Structure formats: C-alpha cells, structure tokens
Fold this sequence. Notes:
Blueprint: H1 4-8, H2 12-24, H3 27-33, H4 38-52, E1 57-60, E2 63-66, H5 68-88, E3 101-107, H6 109-126, E4 130-136, H7 139-147, E5 153-156, E6 165-173, E7 175-179, H8 192-197, E8 199-203, H9 212-218, E9 225-230, H10 236-242, E10 245-250, H11 251-261, E11 264-266, E12 275-282, H12 289-309
Helix pairs in contact: 2-3, 2-4, 2-5, 3-4, 6-12
Amino acid sequence: xxxxATLRKIDLNLLLAFSVLMQERNVSxxxxxxxxxxxxxxxxLRRLREALDDELFVRVGRGLQPTPRxxxxxxxxxxxxxxxxxxxxxxxxxxxxxxxxEFRIGMCDNLESAFFGPLAARLLQLSPGARLIGIASEKRDxxxxxxxxxFDFSVSVHDEPASWHIRAPLFNQxxxxxxxxxxxxxxxxxSLDGLADAAHVTVSFEGNASTSIDIALSRTxxxxxxxxxxxxxxxxxxxxxxxxxxxxxxxxxxxxxAQLHGLTICEPPLPLPVDPVTMxxxxxxxxxxxxxxxRRLFLDVAGEALVASGCRVAISRAAA
Length: 320
C-alpha cells in the first residue's frame, strides 16, 4: 500500500500531466496542451515515476508507450480528475420557470401582512411549479430554526448573528399612528397631549403592554393609556374599528391596514425608535443559485410593496 509520504509527493498537476500523456503519448503535444515547456513536463513525469516507482511511459519510436502500471491506474486517475472538474464547474443558472418545490420564508406577522401576498403572487408568475410556505418567526428563535432548515431565510429584527449566518440590512422601519376616524376624532397634526389622552391598543405576542414607545413618551413627561393588547397585528384593524382608540404600529403594516380597512394614519408627534429590519440566512447558502434567486425576488417584491404603500424607506440591496 502506498504510504503517506508517497501520497504527499503526488499533487493535482502531476495527475493532470499523467492524464494528458496517456491521451497524447507524445511529450511535445502534451506539453503544448498543458501550457508547459518540455523540460517542465519531463520534470513532472520524473517526479511521478519516483513517487510510483515505475517508468510509467517508455519511448517507442517518436512516441510513448504506457507501462502495465500506467494502464492499470489510468481509469482511476481519469475518474478522480473528472470528479474534481464536476465539483468546481460553475453551477448552472437557476431556472425558476422549470423548478418544482418549496420556497420557505420566516417572517413576523407585521411583515407577513405587508409582503407575503405580493411575494406569493410574483412567485406564481415566475415559478408556477413552486409553492411558497410562510413560517411564523420571532427573532428569539429565528437563528435556531434557520439552522434546522425550517425556512430559507428569515425577515425580522434579528439579534447579532452567529459566524455561520449572514444578517443583511433591509430597511429601517419607523412607526406610524393608526385609528378609525369614525370612532376617534383627532385634530391634525396630532399633538403629544392628544396622543397621550387617547385610548391605546397595543400588539404583543406575550401580552406585554410596555415598549420602547412608552419609554420615548415618558421622556416627554407623558404616559399613554393602554386599554387593550392583542397578540397579533391581524387582530388590530377590527379592534380599532370597534372602539375609539389609536395604535402605534410599524409603518409598513400601518399603511397596508389603512388601505385594506379604511383606517386613518398620521405621523406620531414625537421621534420614536426605528427598528432595523434584516434578512438572516446561512452563509453556506450565499452562493447557491436557487437561494440567491429567492432572496433577490423578495428584495424586488418588498421594495415595490413599500413604494406602493407610500412608505418613506427603500430596500437595501445588500442581501442580494
């Protein structure tokens, strides 16, 4: 059996030289194909002969005749070189029109309301054999579920990523006030006192009423009166249509709700924190053709959806 020291003497260049010599049976023609001078090819052949302890090729007239050892190892070397070529060959461009399978995206519900419908519609046009699966996702479990293969990528406000993940910025999401003006009569522009005096409905998956909005209000000496907390944004429009109350929500879903449910939106009367919405995906998927196409599709659709709704922010292309 060949020892490790012998194997270390044999590199890819030597195997390639052997393969070309087997095909050409002529040093000059083989050197020309390899873009080597004859001395360089002769030196490579000498190293291979020493490593394998066999002549490999003997001169017969103007050509070379492979030895029995060379003939016996040639098929395995050709298979190995072919395998390497297949492995490093550029991937074929992903063709969404002919692809059949699932695309899976993780989103919190406010972003889902703004982007999922337009994304599903565009995917149906471009990849009719595909199916879009939306997965409810919170930032606290997005990284774990990404590693488990639950979705291709997550769109949310993500924490600092692990080294094997990529967190790409999408847009900074501002807040906006929303209410039903048939229920709640407010004077424009909305004042701090008017905001604080109104009844508020908040959204919290865990039932927490206090948020960064309350911290911002407290710095101005005001405090809002929360009368109800719903677990998902989808429950908010019916609550606002049923009572004289106001909500402060991310701009993307606020504008979407206003269009769908006939609600009124207005700017908050104080600066509020913005949330950096990002895309989280696995580093190993960075160059994958299918995954890259899906990420780009989402960027296109989300950017168009933000513009159509009147949002003041634009999508970053960094995630592409």
